[in-house]
Amino acid sequence: MGGVTSSIAAKFAFFPPQPPSYTIVGGEGGGGGSGRRRLLVLDEPSREDIDVLKLRTRRGNDIVAIHVKHPKATSTMLYSHGNAADLGQMLELFVELSNRLRVNIMAYDYSGYGQSSGKPTEYNTYADIDAAYKCLKDDYGVKDEQIILYGQSVGSGPTVDLASRIQNLRGVVLHSPILSGLRVLYPVKRTYWFDIFKNVDKIGMVNCLVLVIHGTMDEVVDCSHGKQLWELCKQKYDPVWIHGGGHCNLELYPEYIKQLKKYVVFLNKMKAGTDGPKKASTAASDSEGQSKPQEGGPPDTFELVPNVPEVSRNSLDSRLEKSKKQTKQEKSRMSTDQVDRFWRRKGLVW
Fold first, then answer.
1. In this structure, how many other beta carbons lie within 10 angstroms of the beta carbon of residue 300?
2. Angle at which helices 336-345 and 87-101 cross, to 10°
3. Contact indicator for 242, 250 with CB cutoff of 8 Å
4. Which residues are catalytic?
5. pLDDT at residue 252, as a whole number
6. What are the residue boundaries of the Serine aminopeptidase S33 domain, all occurrences included (predicted)?
7. CB-based contacts of 222: which residues, under 8 Å, 6+ apart?
8. Most exposed residue of 18, 169, 214, 293, measured as fewest CB within 10 angstroms of its CB?
């Protein structure tokens, strides 16, 4: 059954950029800031201030990860990217997010993406994020309560899976998330054993405050996925429905970075003020009624367990509205320098 699941995953969930957008030069170094490797991206200068790591997963693959450090960070964001990107394409965005949110960022390429070995499968992504999480704990000394998991599109799968197994995370961000792999294609009402990334069945086991960000005009993963996941969350933060936003351009909207910043600040204050309780009133919502920006306008103890195939069962989403099927393949990410120019033009610099 696992082989069938992997085949389904490969058909509609994974589209690694070919060829990879980066190369790695330098020696063999482990973690903790060795800085002996460099990640080279075409037409971009190499950065000496980013740790480039190779991590061995429990499934025997060697994945590439990067660690971007901010001097004033009190939290670390573990970022799982979408299915048509790799670290080279996302690098500048990670640097910008680290600067603007004042967080450290750990990001990784899934097995079969970029310079990571192996093949992309559902269970490999779970092993991949576990390896990145273990590196944060063992090599960087990061505690669970300092970690914010961030999952974009397909990356919401490993993000929700890991979040469902850790009790004391600081927060979780789901960016254009999916209910499950099959539900992206068909409005099914139950979970089948061959489905992948069953976020709809796992989100109820996430105990921290969850922020959902989704574009209302998403042509790949309908916005109903994000709305239904938000409804099923135990701890809800005001969602961000970006009006007119698609699947690969949400970073171009000023409310994206404003609301993400507000969420990170809220988590920091909640941690500093209460040091533990997860249930709290969310910040005042100004995510409704958002519109596309006009050019030149004003800025408005954790245990790794083996993966066991799940049997068919009725799904939680049987009490929710059915998802609208979308079959279009995810497109490549936008240019990160375009994102940077837009944010700076709007004055959204912290």
1. 13
2. 20
3. yes
4. 153, 218, 247
5. 95
6. 74-180
7. 323, 324, 325, 326
8. 18
Q: Detail the DSSP E strand segments found in the chain.
A: 22-26, 37-41, 50-56, 62-68, 76-80, 104-108, 147-152, 171-175, 190-191, 209-215, 235-236, 240-242, 313-314
Classified by CATH at the fold level, domain 2-20+70-345 comes out as Rossmann fold (3.40.50)
Q: How many CB atoms lie within 10 A of CB 350?
A: 10
**Residue range 1-17: mean pLDDT, rounded:** 63
Question: To the nearest 5 percent, what fractions of the chain are helix, strand and coil?
Answer: 35, 15, 50
The tens digit of pLDDT for each residue in 22-54 reads 999 876 544 444 445 888 886 666 677 799 999
Which amino acid, 38? R
Sequence length of the chain is 350
* SS3 call for 183: helix
In the chain, DSSP finds a helix count (H) and a strand count (E) of: 9, 13
The structural domains of the chain, with segments of one domain joined by +, span: 2-20+70-345
pLDDT in tens, 202-232: 999 999 999 999 999 999 999 999 999 999 9
**Looking at residue 350, what is its pLDDT?**
36
> Would you give the DSSP letter of residue 193?
T
Helix (H) or strand (E) holding 128: helix 122-139
Q: Considering only residues 241 and 332, tell me which one the structure prediction assigns the higher pLDDT.
A: 241
How far is 83 from 333, CA to CA, in rounded Å? 10
